[in-house]
Amino acid sequence: MHSIDELKNLKGKRILLRLDLNAPIVNGAITDPFRIDRALKSIQFLIAREARVVLVSHLSDSRGSLVPVYEYLKKKMPLTFVDDIAGVEAHQAVEALQDGEAVLLQNIRMSDDEKKNDAHFTRELASLADMYINDAFPASHRIHASIVGVAGILPAYAGFQFFDEVAGLTPALTPESPSLAIVGGAKLTTKVALIETLLKKYDRVFVGGAIANDFFKAKGYEVGMSLVSDNDTAKAMLGNSKIILPEFVTVEGPNGRRDILASEVGKNEAILDIAPASIQALQSIINASHSILWNGPMGNFEKGFTAGTDALAIAIAGSSAKSIVGGGDTLSSIQNLGLMDKFTFVSTAGGAMLDFLANGTLPGIDALEKKT
Ligand code: 3PG
Q1: Residue 138 alpha carbon to ligand 1 centre in Å
Q2: Please, which residues bridge with residue 249 across strands?
């Protein structure tokens, strides 16, 4: 994989820089610029070398406009915006670029051809530039035109953040024993491949969040009104002695909110978080671990159940283990607690982190290595 570092004589060169500027936007305002800020290094590197930079990004919301991101970025660099992706207006905007200037194209997911990795669209996109840089690791699990297609046409390089993500996450593929993996989140189906890989590589795998509900149900516990998704997979995994489940949970129901044993949930109650006593029970394993990997929240963030995730973040941050962590809600908890620098590596990726850990690579990595 070639790196942005290797690029020389960039003056006047047109560079297609694929970024992940998929920041949360509420009522037209960016609520957390973390991802955008992480993208700045590659942009500024290219601008300082007088390249003509074409910024490409998606928003998960395929109807959402990148204008709020443009408003944020233009305060930091000479930047224009074009409400087009690979059409005439985009080509004109790129033509108009001077050395050391950048243009941001509209949300690339507005085009279905991006998602289809359509050959014609890919060629149109590639024709905007002389070379391509992927600095969008969090989107590199997608076989999309701007991730995989263009890398097959133009000379292709990895950006700074992309390299940091691969370097930061790679040690999680070969953890040092004693090792602990912690998986949370809402849907077991999205984490099955990951948990299966982790069970092969890690000494213990703690399962929290709504995913744990599937395991409780598979154990024959009453789960009441709790969210459950994939009981059969949980049943099959239960036999594995590496799996640890939270002993205590926080429920809400007719008796209000209470912390109870996971085996004592009532028919009218819903499990919404792991209880602090579960973290205390996990503390000795955390303290003894040399490597800890954590992805996914322990409670229902939408309903404000952040206490279990916060307590876990504090417990891991205080340990001497090499700790690798990622996933949107997990990240926001760590940020809010001011613990970012207490972890060995904090990934900006969600789904891409899961796929990288499950498979050891991503379509976007393979494309840069020209394996596709
Ligand atoms: C993410 O938020 O994980 C990345 O930006 C990828 O977004 P996506 O799930 O919409 O592809």
Answers
A1: 6
A2: 260, 274
pLDDT 10s digits, 230-256 = 778 999 999 999 999 999 999 999 989
DSSP string for 246-286 = -SEEEEEETTEEEEEEGGG--TT-EEEEE-HHHHHHHHHHH
CB 309 within 8 A of CB 336: no
Quickly state the pLDDT bin for 79 (edges 50, 70, 90).
very high
Q: Residues near ligand 1 with C-beta < 6 Å?
A: 20, 22, 60, 138-139, 142, 349-351
Strand partners, 82: 105
The answer to whether residue 372 scores a pLDDT higher than 70 is: no
- Tell me which amino acid residue 156 is: A
Question: Which domains are delineated in the chain?
Answer: 4-158 (3.40.50.1260), 168-359 (3.40.50.1260)
**How far is the C-alpha of 280 from the C-alpha of 286, rounded, in Å?**
10
